[in-house]
Amino acid sequence: MRCVKTIIPVLTFLLLAFVTSPLSADDKAKDEATLKNAATVLQTMLSDKSIPQGLVAKADCILILPSVKKFAIGIGGSGGRGPMSCRSGANFKGKWSAPAMFTIGGASAGLQLGGTSTDFVLLLMAPSAVNKVLNGKVKIGADVSAAAGPSSAQASTPAGADILNYAKAKGVFAGVSLDGASLDPDGDANKRLYGKQITANEIVIQNSVQPTPGGQALLTELGMIKK
To answer: What residue spans define the domains of the chain?
Structure first.
């Protein structure tokens, strides 16, 4: 009986090690898939002229959140993750950086009923907004201002907005505003992607790493944007 009591914890530990070991690789594969999905989202929105190429070219950074999940009855919540890339240089005029992963989460009150999966593209238009987002725990609508971005057919751009927001819903849902949602660097995903503990600032501002295959797919799309 004493032998059995000894063996059971050992077997449990080995089982957990076996289950957990491939999980990290699987998560990294999912991170790469998220990067590639982000590239597809950007390509689609540019192709159908949902987003003007000229505005993307003027943006300091771009944050793409594919398939943000949202489901609500009375009070709505949202959650998702995606990459952010910034232009290099002190004035954000250089080449796009390797992407850093971010998470989005939050809640919105109001009369809501339904579930959806929405692709978001956020254009960060002000250096001050970039700094706040990189520092983490930024609440949209409170710490940084956001407005619906104009389409290619619209003539004017909202004045004074830190972030221009574009969204495409894949389900029926009333209201895709990100007000009240929070943005935060995803340190775990960045560590998996780049193989070391690294901050979002080191990735997108200091250009400390090279893009992974998924990140390169996104940079290829960004590199095709004309001013």
So the answer is: 22-223
In single-letter form, the type of residue at position 99 comes to P
Could you give the CA distance from residue 82 to residue 104 in angstroms, rounded to a whole number?
A: 8
For the chain, the 3-state helix, strand and coil shares in percent, each to the nearest 5, are 35, 30, 30
Is residue 165 a contact partner of residue 149, using CB atoms and an 8 Å limit?
A: yes
β-sheet bridge partners, residue 65:
120
In sequence order, what are the beta bridge partners of 96? 87
Which DSSP string corresponds to 97-160?
PPPEEEEEEEEEEEEEEEEEEEEEEEEE--HHHHHHHHHS-EEBTTTB-EEEPP-TT-----TT
> By the 8 A CB rule, do 155 and 86 touch?
no
Interval 132-191: pLDDT, tens: 999 988 999 889 998 888 876 665 666 678 999 888 876 443 345 677 888 999 999 999
